[in-house]
Amino acid sequence: MKHPEREKIVPYLSKQLNKNEAKQFEEHLKKCPTCSAELRILGAAKKTLAQEEKELPKIDVVSRVLGKIAGSSRSLSPKPVWDMAAPRAKPTPRKKRKGKNK
After folding, report:
1. For the purposes of burial, counting CB atoms within 10 Å of the CB of 12, is it exposed (0-12), middle (13-18) or buried (19 or more)?
2. Which of 37, 52, 77, 92 matches a 20 to 30 Å C-alpha distance to 11?
3. Is residue 84 part of a domain?
């Protein structure tokens, strides 16, 4: 069974319905537990996504941090791990042992 009012849930959440359409849809919600439940679920999902978006760092911040890690403010990705490792220590020459000459 097709439920045409269901198609108005997302536009209603996004405030895309005009006042008359919104009022009619609100009247429908009072009588329709299916649409009311879906509206609550989608509304909660929208709120959660909006909160997550606020908490995500902006690309500019990420870019600057990665640039500093890589040693360049222009770089978007860090250097490979082996480039960031400490330089290798030079091997120390072996000392000759006393009494054993070859």
Report:
1. buried
2. 52
3. yes
What angle separates helix 19-31 from helix 33-55, to the nearest 10 degrees?
Answer: 120
What CA–CA distance (Å, rounded) separates 100 from 41?
Answer: 85
Contact between residue 8 and residue 17 where contact means Cβ atoms under 8 Å apart: yes
Q: By residue range, what is the domain housing residue 71?
A: 57-89
The pTM of this model reads 0.50
* Type of residue numbered 10: V
Amino acid letter for position 94: R
Number of neighbours of residue 67 by Cβ within 10 angstroms: 16
**Is 17 inside any structural domain?**
yes
Contact (Cβ atoms closer than 8 angstroms) between residue 19 and residue 27: no
Say yes or no: 73 and 43 in one domain: no
> 48-88: per-residue pLDDT in tens?
888 777 766 666 666 777 777 666 544 444 555 555 555 56
